[in-house]
User: Which sequence fits this backbone?
């Protein structure tokens, strides 16, 4: 399928989209809320169906090419979105092809208004639009066939990539040219769920062939004649600036072409990576380090603790928390801490840029096309539409390829501009681990009073950590109370806390030069760990089985209870375990989906081993159950790395980790057996990329507590000896 | 220096300390072999040198002169290798970036061990990192590939 990226591909795309030889379908969808995830409500129904650009091309050879408005980074939308079209189109699945769409306004997220992938929203936000594309294309093909055959459209039916009427059968490829001449239908009627044949059918990935033979093109694989490669020497401390540099030795390295200063540091531009890297090692840069040079993890924790003892911004407030806590006979108090974390996608960041007189071309694996395009336009002085952004496959994203600052794209544009040549700017693994945009460190301090019935009567919860949204173009999403929703999601909005009559949730923003970012499941990555661990502590204090205790607290929350019961039943909750094994349970809602997990652990040589995880998910309509299973395995593995291994720490402003030897992630021998059970549902599709991650930390911590009696309050989990 | 890659003889102008990874990717344009860490920690760059699994980021040009290198592009015609077929059957890949290394590692394992145990898979594939967490399917697919491989040899 795709081979090495061809710079002329964009031209081809444009030509194809305008060609009368194929059918091109698209819709204009009114821009909805800018930064609400789709699970909060159905996207606005299209006011009018109007052709604007291509979501779909049907070629004379019957191939159906779907243009993805979102980025494939492993989460499986390369398969799920074509399924939505194929369902309504009655397509021949074997003829489906997929491409990333170019960056253009027509591909804007239906809820956010910018072209972006994130928040586990792709399938949910495109559930209507991609089905409507398929339905409209089908209607046009039927109309074209009816004209050709001289029958009424009502006498035609569609099956497996063809229109059938009477004894005749016309393939879509034969009809596409005629259909392209017809006006778009004013409205389309979508199939009823009971008629679905594709949605809900376990379907293998469409991107497998090119990902098992080495031909898939990731950003790092983009090549064309004249392309140079750069690496950038950046400040060893966040916020540091170049004072001066000596590049004589760097320039002397064979293959090094240029050394240029850019806002983020000094770039060594060479014929290939190895020369660039050798050049960078020979470069001598003097830095003005600034205040970031004093960053120290121990001092930060002390400051977090100090802040936690002061009044913060109010997230939620009800009743009289101090009075109830002071008068309660039974109280649970705890402090939880989670570290900064790097995303460390397997493909380090990279971006290829070619700047011409009236256009700038960019090839990169990004989650934020529109922002990257705007950033490149600003740097080059071009208009956004003169910036042609080609989305490649993403070698993992997890949030790192969605920076509001477009950090790596911006830097690459600066490098290409300064070098006066097409340049691929590459990050090494060390650059990635030390380069910031981390999941922020958080400290939670929690005090809960229990009534005579063992249920919480007061819940006091203070969070301290850096805001992901503050200081970015998304800061407008922070409401008037100053509380970044990405810091606190999963606390005050949790069904546990909402039911407590006396509730106080407070947030302290910690100001720091450390760049922070959403990391798979964002705030839920720490709030689920804390809330679900605390609930287990409460159950223990109340002397009630953790599952039974959750049943009491979650009465009235059927989707939470549904997955809780399903996971517990399939895990054999309450049945005897082999000696040396412990079980823990957790349930959490995030990104419109509900996930419960039961983890089974042991301790071997002082190390926690997770043997089995039973996972139940209610994500509404399960568009591709195979993808959902894979994403639960993935979310669990990603979360487990942070539970067992990963942390970023600082000393003298320097990140103390550098590569996979000291920024450790989950390895295959640590992977538990994961069993996934999907709740049947007709609710709108929720997310699946992120919701598998939040419950794994508390499920494991709760299992460790059940097994050892040790309640661990910090990630990564470390047993006390 | 002379270098045989996927059956084709190449004359490569590379300094002796240049890692094989960058010779393959930047000089020969074989981008299926991936860079992940550069220090032999992740296995994304694994290739076969004279049939043996090698991390190409840690293998210097001087060490492979005159030798025969196989990359993912040359593993089998039309992705027909037992490992590739097992990978497709079990829907292993996600982002796909680490998969060339995983597949090359698995192919080397079953070539030398037609019936690997879980422990042997852990010992070998345990050195191949994947951030998408495809590990459970990798393990199952290695068993399936070994089975397909045994069937082929009957």
Assistant:
């Amino acid at each position: 399928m795709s081979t090495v990226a061809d710079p002329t591909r964009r031209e081809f795309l444009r030509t194809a989209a305008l060609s009368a030889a194929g059918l091109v379908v698209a819709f204009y969808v009114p821009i909805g809320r800018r930064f609400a995830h789709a699970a909060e409500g159905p996207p606005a129904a299209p006011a009018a169906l109007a052709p604007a650009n291509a979501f779909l091309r049907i070629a004379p050879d019957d191939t159906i090419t779907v243009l993805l408005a979102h980025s494939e980074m492993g989460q499986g939308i390369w398969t799920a979105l074509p399924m939505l079209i194929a369902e309504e189109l009655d397509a021949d699945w074997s003829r489906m092809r997929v491409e990333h769409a170019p960056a253009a306004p027509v591909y804007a997220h239906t809820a956010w208004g910018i072209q972006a992938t994130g928040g586990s929203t792709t399938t949910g936000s495109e559930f209507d639009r991609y089905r409507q594309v398929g339905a409209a294309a089908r209607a046009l093909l039927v109309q074209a066939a009816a004209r050709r055959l001289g029958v009424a459209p009502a006498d035609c039916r569609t099956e497996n990539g063809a229109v059938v009427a009477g004894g005749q059968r016309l393939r879509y490829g034969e009809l596409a040219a005629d259909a392209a001449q017809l006006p778009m239908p004013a409205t389309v009627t979508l199939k009823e769920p009971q008629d679905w044949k594709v949605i809900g059918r376990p379907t293998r990935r469409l991107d497998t062939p090119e990902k098992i033979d080495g031909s898939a093109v990731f950003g790092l694989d983009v090549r064309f004649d004249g392309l140079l490669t750069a690496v950038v020497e950046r400040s060893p401390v966040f916020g540091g600036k170049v004072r001066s540099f000596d590049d004589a030795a760097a320039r002397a390295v064979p293959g090094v072409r240029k050394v240029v200063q850019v806002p983020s540091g000094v770039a060594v531009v060479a014929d290939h990576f190895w020369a660039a890297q050798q050049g960078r090692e020979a470069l001598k840069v003097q830095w003005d380090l600034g205040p970031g040079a004093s960053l120290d993890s121990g001092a930060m924790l002390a400051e977090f603790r100090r802040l936690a003892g002061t009044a913060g911004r109010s997230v939620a407030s009800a009743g009289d928390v101090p009075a109830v806590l002071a008068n309660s006979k039974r109280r649970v108090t705890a402090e939880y801490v989670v570290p900064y974390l790097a995303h460390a996608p397997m493909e380090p960041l990279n971006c290829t840029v070619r700047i011409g007189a009236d256009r700038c071309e960019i090839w990169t694996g990004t989650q934020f096309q529109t922002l990257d395009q705007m950033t490149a336009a600003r740097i080059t002085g071009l208009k956004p539409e003169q910036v042609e952004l080609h989305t490649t496959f993403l070698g993992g994203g997890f949030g790192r390829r969605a920076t509001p600052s477009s950090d790596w794209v911006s830097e690459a544009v600066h490098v290409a501009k300064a070098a006066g040549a097409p340049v691929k700017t590459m990050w090494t693994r060390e650059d990635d681990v030390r380069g910031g945009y981390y999941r922020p460190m958080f400290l939670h301090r929690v005090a809960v009073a229990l009534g005579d019935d063992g249920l919480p009567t007061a819940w006091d919860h203070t969070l301290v950590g850096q805001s992901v949204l503050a200081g970015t173009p998304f800061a407008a999403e922070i409401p008037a109370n100053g509380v970044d929703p990405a810091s606190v999601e999963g606390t005050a909005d949790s069904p546990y806390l909402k039911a407590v009559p006396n509730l106080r949730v407070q947030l302290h923003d910690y100001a720091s030069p450390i760049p922070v970012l959403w990391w798979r499941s964002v705030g839920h990555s720490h709030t689920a760990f804390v809330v679900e661990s605390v609930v287990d502590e409460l159950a223990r204090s109340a002397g009630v089985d953790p599952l039974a205790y959750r049943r009491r607290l979650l009465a009235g929350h059927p989707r939470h209870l549904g997955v809780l019961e399903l996971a517990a039943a399939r895990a054999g909750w309450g049945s005897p375990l082999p000696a040396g094994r412990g079980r823990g349970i957790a349930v959490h809602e995030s990104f419109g989906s509900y996930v419960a997990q039961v983890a089974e652990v042991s301790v071997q040589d002082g190390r926690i081993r997770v043997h089995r995880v039973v996972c139940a998910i209610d994500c509404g309509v399960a568009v591709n159950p195979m993808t959902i299973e894979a994403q639960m395995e993935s979310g669990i593995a990603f979360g487990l790395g942070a539970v067992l291994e990963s942390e970023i720490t600082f000393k003298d402003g320097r990140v103390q980790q550098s590569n996979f030897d000291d920024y450790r992630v989950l390895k295959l021998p640590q992977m538990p057996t994961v069993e996934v059970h999907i709740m049947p549902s007709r609710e709108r599709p929720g997310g699946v990329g992120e919701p598998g991650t939040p419950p794994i930390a508390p499920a494991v911590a709760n299992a460790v507590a059940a097994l050892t009696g040790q309640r661990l309050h910090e990630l990564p989990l470390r047993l006390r000896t | 220096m002379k270098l045989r890659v996927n059956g084709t003889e190449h004359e490569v102008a590379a300094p002796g300390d240049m890692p094989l990874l960058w010779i393959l990717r930047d000089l020969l344009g074989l981008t299926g072999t991936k860079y992940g860490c550069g220090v032999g920690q992740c296995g994304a760059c694994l290739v076969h040198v004279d049939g043996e699994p090698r991390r190409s980021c840690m293998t210097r040009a001087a060490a492979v002169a005159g030798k025969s290198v196989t990359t993912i592009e040359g593993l089998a015609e039309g992705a027909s290798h037992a490992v590739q077929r097992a990978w497709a059957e079990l829907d292993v890949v996600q982002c796909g970036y680490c998969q060339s290394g995983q597949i090359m590692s698995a192919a080397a394992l079953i070539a030398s061990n037609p019936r690997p145990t879980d422990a042997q898979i852990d010992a070998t594939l345990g050195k191949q990192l994947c951030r998408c967490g495809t590990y459970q399917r990798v393990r199952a697919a290695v068993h399936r590939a070994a089975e397909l491989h045994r069937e082929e040899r009957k």
Notes: The mean pLDDT of chain B is 97.
